[in-house]
Fold:
Amino acid sequence: MIRRAAKRWIDICVASVVLVLASPVLAIAVVLVWLDVGSPVIFRQVRIGRHGVPFEILKLRTMRDGLGDDAARTTRIGSFLRSTSIDELPQLINVLRGEMSLVGPRPLLPEYLELYSPRQARRHDVRPGISGLAQVSGRNELGWSDRLEVDAQYVDDPTLVLDLRILAATVRQVVGRSGITNAGAPMQRFSGEVAREHPPR
Structure:
């Protein structure tokens, strides 16, 4: 309980400070997105949060409307925003709302819910995060099997020290722009086929 309260306090303080400091960058990014793909500049999508409760995640738009896969619709500016993680700055608002944390398993789509193994489903025991152990262990370079197992390992033993290490690693990763496959293109969708690779413990 104390750790959870301290984590929430850190989330609010850090998210507030970063949102203020990053506001000039965010303002410029909003203008670029508006010139690039038009309005709306904010992408909203339902994701699954703590205890399986759905919420609306906020990101800057990085893709054009229309047909084609995500990679084909991602613009040059969108690819840059993804590779620098600037597109995720609006998620600080999700953190302030209490829907997300700075650190935790990345929130995924509702249709994946029925595909998780019991161990993989434990990711919903904690708030989802802007960054997480899986992201600093390889970001999109990890396959679904390894990614979901790393998320489960984080839930097994979450500590404030681990969160601080993940935040530090995230900063290094963003500055170095590492671990992004295909210049910021999203991962392939989860099909549930890897659920048997890591049986529940």
The chain has eight helices and four strands. Residues 180-185, 195-201 have pLDDT under 50 and may be disordered. The first strand starts at residue 42 and ends at 48. The CA atoms of residues 107 and 172 lie 22 Å apart.
